[in-house]
Design brief:
Oligomer: heterodimer
Radius of gyration of chain A: 13 Å
Number of strands of chain B: 11
Strand content of chain A: over 45%
Largest sheet of chain A: 6 strands, mixed
Radius of gyration of chain B: 13 Å
Structural class of chain A: mainly beta
Strand content of chain B: over 45%
Shape of chain A: globular
Helix content of chain B: under 10%
Largest sheet of chain B: 7 strands, mixed
């Protein structure tokens, strides 16, 4: 069974700090990796996707992918209270997108 | 950017009635769309894969006769919850893939069955 694992949290960081979110996956055939942010009662919104090993930066967000170790992470620099949400890692193999359980992030002012 | 539009955003219906939820890809064609269900404080659970012009593929444990999916065009998939019961109350979300690397979600539909 294809699995995507995340620590459910909550992960609590002070405002301005770096938040580090991690995700591991089991399917070595996975091709694309996504990070979504979901506020309570809302649909997930795409933050970043990555499909090559290494780092990908977009503003305050950096996604890191290591296919050999089968993990993908998301770093949020200068965390803001508005970043408080559940972050979902998703892994795509072919057409199928498999989600992790999500990590709840709390950024405290 | 690409937008996936889902309608309605919320609906309240009586037990035993049917509810239709629409999912549209607004600026790209989606041969495949996905329907998810999310219960409070839980992650997204894939219900079915909707394929344009063919039958949907349902995940194990999802009743295909209860959750009817129609993918009539490259931009529209519908999910009909038939004979809804209170336990069907949930947040239903559709998504569509664009190319090999992108996946976009609709706004979600909050269904409450009373």
């Amino acid at each position: 069974q294809k699995e995507v694992e995340q620590n459910s949290g909550p992960l609590s960081v002070p405002e301005g700090a770096i938040a580090s979110l991690n995700c591991t996956y089991s399917d070595r055939g996975s091709q694309s990796f996504f990070w979504y942010r979901q506020y309570s009662g809302k649909s997930p919104e795409l933050i970043m996707f990555i499909y090559s090993n290494g780092d990908k930066e977009d503003g305050r967000f950096t996604a890191q992918l290591n296919k050999a170790s089968q993990y993908v992470s998301l770093l949020i620099r200068d965390s803001q209270p508005s970043d408080s949400a559940t972050y979902l890692c998703a892994v795509r193999a072919g057409n199928m997108l498999t989600f992790g359980g999500g990590t709840r992030l709390m950024v405290k002012p | 950017g690409a937008v996936v539009s889902q309608h309605p955003s919320w609906v309240i219906c009586k037990s035993g009635t049917s509810v239709k939820i629409e999912c549209r890809s607004l600026d790209f064609q989606a041969t495949t769309m996905f329907w998810y269900r999310q219960f409070p404080k839980q992650s997204l659970m894939l219900m079915a894969t909707s394929n344009e012009g063919s039958k949907a593929t349902y995940e194990q444990g999802v009743e295909k006769d209860k959750f009817l999916i129609n993918h009539a065009s490259l931009t529209l998939s519908t999910l009909t919850v038939t004979s809804a019961h209170p336990e069907d109350s949930s947040f239903y979300i559709c998504s569509a893939n664009r190319g090999r690397t992108e996946a976009f979600f609709g706004q979600g539909t909050r269904l409450t069955v009373v």
